[in-house]
């Protein structure tokens, strides 16, 4: 390489260093700063963002009721206030009923503690040939001052922790309520403000997304509310017939928790009345368990498909997976919000996604082929059932004729 070429290459390299290297370093610093700044902001505002998401979800859930009152001539602010007050009143009544059940059962359990101790001691003595004395155990439990002091200290700290948690929840509820009121009362102006920031060619798509979101969230709450009412009525009648105490509160608990807590809501809803019935009478607990299991099957195969057919078009596997992902991201709140979010995304994919004809497969039949085969099988089964019924009628008629001839011969 000649000296001239070497000098040209060195000048190019030095020019690149002076021009691009500072730019690359500056861009790297900016990217790192933006990344860490965004992470810091998100970490410190995560609670607020969750509150805002909950507020939007609650507002969309109450929107159908507010729109119905607004169409009847109510001012939007008044309609929003009435719907929110009704929701708050129902929530307070529900919480009061649950607290009444819990406190009553705890008092009853404490009052029956000596009987439970005596039953356990008698069982242990019979089973293991021991000679424990229930009176001695009860006396030791009630005379141990150090243990009683420790229990009282723990109870006091627990009460303080519960009070601070209650104050935090109350503040969060008031914050959510304020956001919900503003969203519902000013929704037309909010919608117009959002669409003004979008080019006219894209406003239709944005409005479609907003409409689908409102429809799916409202449909989710509507369908779950209807199922909750059915569940509460059925369980109230069953609990009343069985003789379980606090039938109204327990029926409300089963209806609401089983419908609005995904994946594990059914088990949580059934565990509480089962424990209450078990404290009262083990036989009642068996009847309660049977009632919950039978109703769950009726709901899964009869009620839910008909009620949620037009409101929550979501495959059970997708619902289960979305609940797990939502719980992993935001805990219990994410699990509750996961289903309407998944339904909204599914509806958007169905609206804007491309659809093609499905090719035939030699190993897996299409849904249409499966339905046709099941329909043909059902027709064949019905034909066999009719044939057996006809044969039975012929056989029964032959037996009747023979009995008639036998009676005439005797006479």
Structural class: mainly alpha
- Poorly predicted ranges (pLDDT <50, ≥5 residues)? none
Major sheet: size, sense and barrel closure? Answer: none
Shape: extended
Report strand %: under 5%
Compute the number of helices. 14
Round the Cα radius of gyration to an integer and report it: 34 Å
What's the order of the H and E elements? HHHHHHHHHHHHHH
Helical fraction equals over 70%
Oligomerization: single chain
- CA distance, first residue to last residue: 137 Å
Strand runs, count: 0
The overall pLDDT, averaged over residues, is 78
How does this model look, in words?
The mean pLDDT is 78. Helix 2 (46-71) crosses helix 8, helix 3 packs antiparallel against helix 6 (145-185) and helix 12 crosses helix 13 (332-352). The longest helix has 44 residues, at 367-410. The chain starts with a helix and ends with a helix. It is 88% helix and 0% strand. The chain has 411 residues and is mostly helical. It has helices at 3-44, 46-71, 76-111, 113-128, 134-143, 145-185, 187-196, 200-242, 247-260, 265-280, 282-307, 316-330, 332-352, 367-410.
Features:
single chain, 411 residues, mainly alpha, 14 helices, extended
Show the helix and strand layout.
Blueprint lengths: L2 H42 L1 H26 L4 H36 L1 H16 L5 H10 L1 H41 L1 H10 L3 H43 L4 H14 L4 H16 L1 H26 L8 H15 L1 H21 L14 H44 L1
Helix pairs in contact: 2-3, 2-6, 2-8, 3-6, 3-9, 4-5, 8-9, 8-11, 8-13, 9-10, 10-11, 12-13
């Amino acid at each position: 390489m000649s000296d001239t070429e070497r000098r040209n290459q060195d000048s190019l390299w030095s020019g690149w260093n002076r021009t691009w290297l500072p730019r690359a370093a500056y861009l790297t610093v900016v990217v790192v700063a933006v990344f860490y700044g965004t992470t810091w902001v998100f970490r410190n505002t995560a609670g607020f963002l969750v509150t805002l998401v909950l507020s939007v979800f609650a507002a969309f859930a109450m929107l159908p009721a507010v729109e119905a009152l607004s169409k009847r001539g109510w001012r939007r602010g008044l309609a929003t206030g009435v719907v929110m007050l009704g929701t708050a009143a129902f929530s307070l009544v529900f919480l009061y009923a649950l607290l009444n059940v819990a406190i009553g059962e705890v008092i009853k359990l404490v009052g029956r503690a000596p009987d439970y101790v005596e039953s356990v001691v008698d069982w242990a003595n019979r089973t293991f040939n021991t000679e424990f004395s229930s009176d001695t155990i009860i006396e030791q439990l009630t005379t141990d001052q150090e243990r009683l002091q420790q229990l009282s200290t723990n109870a006091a700290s627990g009460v303080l922790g519960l009070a601070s948690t209650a104050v935090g929840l109350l503040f969060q509820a008031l914050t959510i309520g304020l956001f919900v009121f503003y969203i519902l009362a000013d929704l037309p102006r909010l919608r117009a403000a959002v669409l003004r920031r979008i080019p006219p060619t894209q406003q239709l798509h944005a409005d479609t997304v907003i409409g689908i979101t409102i429809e799916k969230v409202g449909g989710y709450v509507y369908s779950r509310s209807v199922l909750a009412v059915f569940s509460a009525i059925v369980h109230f009648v069953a609990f009343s017939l069985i003789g379980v105490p606090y039938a109204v509160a327990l029926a409300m608990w089963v209806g609401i928790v089983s419908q609005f807590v995904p994946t594990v809501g059914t088990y949580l809803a059934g565990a509480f009345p089962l424990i209450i019935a078990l404290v009262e009478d083990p036989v009642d607990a068996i009847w309660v368990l049977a009632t919950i299991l039978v109703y769950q099957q009726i709901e899964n195969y009869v009620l839910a498909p008909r009620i949620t057919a037009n409101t929550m078009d979501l495959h059970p596997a997708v619902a289960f997976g979305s609940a797990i992902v939502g719980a992993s991201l935001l805990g219990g709140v994410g699990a509750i919000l996961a289903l309407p979010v998944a339904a909204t995304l599914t509806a958007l994919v169905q609206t804007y996604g491309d659809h093609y004809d499905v090719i035939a497969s030699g190993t897996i039949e299409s849904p249409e082929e499966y339905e046709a085969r099941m329909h043909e099988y059902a027709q064949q089964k019905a034909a066999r059932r009719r044939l057996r019924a006809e044969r039975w009628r012929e056989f029964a008629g032959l037996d009747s004729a023979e009995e008639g001839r036998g009676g005439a011969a005797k006479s």
